[in-house]
Amino acid sequence: MSTTIRLAIGSILVGALVLAIKGLAWWLTGSVALFSDALESTVNMATAIAALIAIRVAARPADASHPYGHHKAEFFSAVLEGVMIIIAALLILREAYEGFLNPVALDLPVEGLLINGAATVINAVWAWVLISRGRIARSPALVADGQHLFTDVVTSVGVALGVLLAVVTGWWVLDPLMAALVAVNILWSGSKVVRESLSGLMDEAVSQETLDTVRAIISTEANGAVEAHDLRTRHAGQATFIDFHLVVPGETTVFDAHEICDRVEAALKKAIEGARITIHVEPEHKQKHSGIVVLD
Hints:
Layout: H1 3-29, H2 32-58, H3 73-101, H4 109-137, H5 140-169, H6 174-201, H7 208-221, E1 227-236, E2 239-247, H8 254-271, E3 275-282, E4 292-293
Parallel strand pairs: 2-3
Antiparallel strand pairs: 1-2, 1-4
Helix pairs in contact: 1-2, 1-4, 2-3, 2-5, 2-6, 3-5, 3-6, 4-5, 5-6, 7-8
């Protein structure tokens, strides 16, 4: 079982635990804000399950119907997570509005805050694990899941402050008001996840830093070639696709041209994990004098 799948399964288990803890905190207090916090945890469970399914699909090898693999499945999961974050925020706003119209005193607020605080700590630790490990594994689904959990942490902190202020001041309207403010923050986070995921689905190029690395490797490793041009890149899940045209002298043999390509491919795969490389070899008269100059 791969690390990404183990982490995705772990997210489901952690989500179930946190949901139970937050549900208990809401049941003890009757707080609209704590109810909203627990409501978002149900979304955490759903998105964790979606991430697991997407990761398993993305891990499938290429086949006749999907010759480039199934890597983009993770982006679909990330988009779904962003949409569900937005839906959760809208549901929280609705509950906050009703609570604002009819504010009520809370039962056992201190106990509820302590219990909810334990759930917040668990979420914070697991969010850090998902984001850090997800970036190492180059898994958009895990990173999106971790970012979603981090918004849940922010939500919980804001909720705790609102409930605490309501208890200290006796202004019970602060409970739903804080829930509404946190919901706005969640809306922003959800829209950001959707935007980033859609960029991947639209075959966005790799970062400028990665592109500079690719160009430098081609320039230094393609000894025997003249230049490289028409460089194109895109990323899909854990895969990074790189293709370009490599111009070689007209007298270069097929064997020698293949050796140059092998050397460049090996260097690119060593520097960029998950690289999928396509090189089109061209004779010298195809030179454009505007691409990557190969150093001697």
